[in-house]
């Protein structure tokens, strides 16, 4: 076994631990943000409204977004270190894109509430929380069950090469 392969195998558990930690922080933030946004009530005292708005903004910018970026980065590195180019993984990446969309929606809502001076009312926390729960449960199912999705009826253009060369070498098993 080569030194590079040994190094890669040794670093995988540490990257997985980092990935799970960043993912836990990101998902916790995605659950907390809709709850915090629901507390943006302009009828509160000005100081109370400013405090919850600052907490939401700083939590999003300084904790949740960096955790999201680092979760995606460590996950991407793990994909290539483990050479995990499987159908279930690509399905998981679609669900991760859904988490990114929820994250972007939360950021947009935070900015809209802060900059519209009472014109934008944040939605209730139920819908974004349910969407996040569904995405997380789907990701957990795919990661833990690793279902054989190779027999899914996918479009032909997704299953057959189109005759184009990739700009990089694809690892083989």
From TrEMBL:
Its EC number is 1.3.99.-. It is found in: Cell membrane. The chain crosses the membrane at residues 20-38, 59-81, 87-114, 126-145. Binds 1 heme b (iron(II)-protoporphyrin IX) group per subunit. Keywords: Cell membrane, Heme, Iron, Membrane, Metal-binding, Oxidoreductase, Transmembrane, Transmembrane helix. Pathway: Porphyrin-containing compound metabolism; protoporphyrin-IX biosynthesis; protoporphyrin-IX from protoporphyrinogen-IX: step 1/1. PANTHER family: PROTOPORPHYRINOGEN IX OXIDASE (PTHR40255:SF1), UPF0093 MEMBRANE PROTEIN SLR1790 (PTHR40255). This is Protoporphyrinogen IX oxidase.
């Amino acid at each position: 076994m080569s030194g590079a392969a040994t190094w890669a195998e040794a670093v995988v558990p540490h990257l997985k631990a980092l990935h799970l930690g960043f993912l836990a922080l990101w998902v916790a933030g995605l659950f907390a943000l809709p709850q915090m946004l629901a507390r943006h009530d302009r009828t509160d005292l000005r100081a109370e409204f400013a405090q919850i708005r600052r907490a939401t903004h700083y939590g999003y910018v300084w904790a949740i977004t960096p955790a999201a970026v680092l979760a995606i980065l460590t996950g991407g590195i793990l994909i290539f270190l483990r050479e995990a180019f499987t159908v279930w993984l690509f399905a998981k990446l679609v669900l991760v894109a859904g988490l990114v969309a929820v994250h972007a929606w939360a950021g947009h809502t935070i900015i809209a509430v802060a900059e519209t001076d009472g014109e934008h009312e944040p939605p209730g926390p139920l819908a974004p929380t349910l969407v996040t729960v569904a995405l997380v449960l789907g990701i957990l199912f795919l990661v833990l069950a690793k279902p054989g999705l190779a027999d899914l009826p996918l479009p032909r253009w997704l299953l057959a090469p189109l005759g184009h060369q990739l700009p990089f070498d694809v690892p083989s098993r």
